Amino acid sequence: MISLAGRDILHAWGKFVFTGMGLGLLIGVTLIMAGVYRGMVDDAKVLLDNSGADLWVVQQNTLGPYAESSSIYDDLWRSIKAMPGVKNAVNATYLTMQVHFDNHDVRTMVTGISYGGPGTAGWPPYLVAGRHITRSHYEAVADIATGFKVGDLIQVRRNHYNVVGLTRRMVSSNGDPMVFIPLKDAQEAQFLKDNDAIWQQRRRTFNNPEFNRAGFPGLIDAVIDDQSSNQFVNTVLVQVDHKYNIEETAENIRKWKRLTVYTRHQMEDIIVGKLIASSARQISLFLVILALVSAAIVAFIIYTLTIGKTREIAVLKLIGTKNSTIAAMIIKQAIALGLIGFVVGKITATFGAPLFPKHVLLEPADALRGLAAVIVICILSSIIAIRAAIKVDPAEAIGG
Amino acid sequence: MIDKGIRIAGLKKRYGFGDTAVDALKNINMYVKPGEVVGLIGPSGSGKSTLLKCLGAVIEPTFGKMMLGEEIIYDNGWLVGDIRALRRDKIGFVFQAPYLIPFLDVVDNVALPSMLAGASNYNARSRAQDLLKALEVEHRAKAMPSHLSGGEQQRVAIARGLVNYPPVILADEPTAPLDSERALIVIKILNEMAKKFDTAVIVVTHDEKIIPTFKRLYHIRDGVTYEEEGQGRGFE
Ligand SMILES: Nc1ncnc2c1ncn2[C@@H]1O[C@H](COP(=O)(O)OP(=O)(O)OP(=O)(O)O)[C@@H](O)[C@H]1O
Ligand SMILES: [Mg+2]
Fold first, then answer.
1. Angle at B125 (CA atoms; ends B55, A8), nearest 5 degrees
2. Is residue A88's pLDDT more than 60?
3. Residue A161 included in any domain
4. Are the beta carbons of A318 and B58 separated by less than 8 Å?
């Protein structure tokens, strides 16, 4: 027996290829959407991995430091470090803000890292260019995705920083590239709004007769200095001695300090479950819409092709073709359309993904799931056409 | 030989029920010998197409008896289990328009009913080639139907009707779209094929050009058949 579906496709290949390409673009977008989600999860994991921490100590009852703001005193790390099982504990700050460079702003996550060196929690684990921060002020290591280069002078709030090194794949869970600066600078940046706000604040302080009293020289300077310093950080990153159990160490800190402590696993749940959740919902809604649109396209095309063959189907039935053979022919055509679409879609996604500003992670497993979904959608979409074909009366071939 | 051919006795067909019922066939009696080509003529609405559909096992008659060879296929109800297989194996169809499958080439169009009946592609195609040769279109075997002339298409359609060597061929106005020269050629071919393959052929027609060629005719008027001696002598 020859393949009726195959012959028909070869005969009408133009229709199949063009419809398949249209469908393919939709499938490509679908795969990219899935990739965007995977990319966000991956970014979150990279963020957590790169922090080098086993535990995140944050303000009590907050989901900080990434999903919610958290503020804790910057001297807490000392007592945490003294707790059993804690190998190292360091302060860190995270703040998403605009960094100014060369007349434009780049959205980044400015990360304040404690004095130390590579290997200290919070520090970028490796550089792709330049060197690590060595001075305690006004040096920065930036992710390559910011577009900055070693030697660039960037502006965070009112201060200028010299870019001394570059990292790769150091991004926030929103995909914003990270800029590492010394903790003190970061605390200041976090506290101070901008030049104008500082200027206003200073003027008000200056005009306040309480602070600017004759006979107390130096008071006004002390007040202003105090106002522009910040004793808070967002989190303490804890590295646990590998001889100790991480969960027990976390429990210890929770018990003795009025703080919330998250393990790596909990942190991942927070970012994926809370921070990325709404994006994930959006993306899944898009996926559903795209699936429906694809189904509608396949159904419409297969139905149109089938209706266009009513006479041939009547003749096929008259000469003894089984309904099941005709149904199989229609399903095979729908699947062929889906496969063409999938191949075009996969190619589109592979070549299109790098053009997206977000990190798009195309996982082979997602492609396989997509393929399965496409085939199921195609089979379901051919039902209408099959019903129409089964209704065709062989008597139609004989006519009146 | 009395035991071959097709035989119809007292066949009736009623469409619909009650007040709107139409008695399309009231009393049909026919016998067509193997190798014989008979004409079936009658005015519009007389029941020709209805009769063809009953014979072709496409619709079910209401009453009566039909025999294919020695097999009673209908006796106030179908006596064959698989009507579709009956159509496929025992009846060849030739239509007013060739109705070839546009996405199959000529040889596969002809071979398809044989493949559907379970023949291997090779056997079905070689049988198709033989028929195409007999009908003098074998040089077009690899062409697509849309690249054939009307007459060539009709010959291919006849070959398709013959490929399973059915005992009966039903032809529904097979010459309608053809000029008189080609129409006569088609009738001549049907006569030759009937002889060659021992097939009973019933040709429904309005076509004045070919009516004189039949040796025997059935006239159908208002659902009733009347046998007539034709003027033709066949193509002996
Ligand atoms: N499906 C149907 N339902 C009801 N009545 C029908 C149906 N098909 C045909 N008829 C009626 O049965 C009668 C015979 O119709 P049929 O089509 O067999 O005529 P015909 O001889 O083929 O006519 P024509 O030469 O015009 O094709 C007509 O009165 C027609 O209206
Ligand atoms: Mg008719």
1. 80
2. yes
3. yes
4. yes
